[in-house]
Give the backbone structure.
Amino acid sequence: MRIGSAHPSNPRTCSVGRATSPVETDIRSYREHTRRTADYGAEDWKRYHAEHGALCARFAALAADGAAPDGAEALQAARDYAALIDRCFYPCDAAHLGPLAEMYEADTRFQETFNGFGAGTAAFIIKAFRACASG
């Protein structure tokens, strides 16, 4: 996955602050992402990719083991994913995972990335995100 390409203009992304429209929400998220990553070096991206890969592998293992996407382990993995986004890119908590699930479902680039960890991983992540967001 190329960094930057995975944040398409989409009105359903995580919000930063209180936006007045979906487009403003996307713009705020993108601006915060750009601000935070402006000084990232190779080691920063390497760390992010390692953490992201570990989380995706965790979701893939849960899916392969037949875990429920709304089960305790999947919900914790979803919260951990939100924490990674929050730490690296823009404010993102469990409530923001619903819009991320919509974006991940709509954009096949995300599905290809997630399914690279195991068949069905994308669908599992999307379900887990929705379950976590609905609380």
Summary: The two ends are 29 Å apart (CA to CA). The mean pLDDT is 85.
